[in-house]
Design a protein that fits this description.
The protein is 42% helix and 13% strand. With 307 residues, it is of the alpha+beta class. It has 2 domains: 4-88, DNA-3-methyladenine glycosylase AlkA, N-terminal domain (TATA-Binding Protein, 2-Layer Sandwich); 89-307, Orthogonal Bundle (Endonuclease III, domain 1), CATH 1.10.340.30. The strands form 2 sheets. It has a 5-stranded antiparallel beta sheet. Strands 6-7 form a two-stranded antiparallel sheet. The chain is globular and about 45 Å long. The model has no long low-confidence stretch (mean pLDDT 94). One of its GO terms (molecular function) is DNA-3-methyladenine glycosylase activity. One of its GO terms (biological process) is DNA alkylation repair.
Amino acid sequence: MSGTLVREVESPTVVNVALTLALLRRGPGDPTFRRAGALTWRTSRQESGPVTYAIEQLTPHRVRATAWGPGGPELLEGLTALVGIDDDPSGFVPSHPVLTDGVRRFPGLRVPRTGRVLEALVPAIIEQKVLGVDAFAAQRRLLHRFGEPAPGPAPDGMRVFPTAEQWAAIPSWEWHVAGVDPSRARAAQAAARLGTQLERLAVRHASDPTSVYRGLRSIPGIGVWTAAEVGSRALGDADAVPFGDFHVAKDVGIALLGRRIDDAELAELLEPWRGHRYRVVRLVHLSPLARTERRGPRMARVDHRRI
């Protein structure tokens, strides 16, 4: 399908589209994401095909999306979930000064639901146990090498996420040249081979992601952290805590308790906010009131292209 499609949606509460969709950006230079003035540009691969879309905030309650490409109708059908209108934060009680300030400072922050599992899963696998700067660079190389040009009047250089079959067929040396070690490459390809089943599983269990997480974690190389990264983007799960992250427990502990904590203490600390635990993590990371340690252990950089 060619041509331009437009849809406008109204939210009963304030929604901040730019801040909500920022979660989908995988580092500077992500070829699937671009901010240009008031527009957020992004590409996606829907079940019906590739799509480029541009989203504009018209009022605090109203959003307009314009789409190009075969996947446009499908993308626009899921617009309210994508921009966070379907996310319900009404049961969230901040009950901590940092969180109270965050809710006041960032009204309209929501958890998006793209519905596209593989688009969240492959980048999360690439980001496992490496510095973000290296993971983002590896993903850029792979998308420029194997992604197709974005349909419609997209900004220069934008690419569409490859198909599951294309990810599964990438040769080992291409992963190496991109900077992805064999273990992560194997996990990404194992996930790609199950891509269709994972997407269907997410549709069947849209209101309860537990079964989706179980399916994800049955794939070798995918654990709690990776599944949560998918949950907070593809599934719209406001409770998806990325346990095992190099920074999350420390950052949340320092922000809310004034000291470093581990994952066990993080689970205990976040328990009163169950159902909204990822919302807490997101507010902490956005808050200027959250203190962070400027010195401390850092993950070592490893250039897997030279190994």
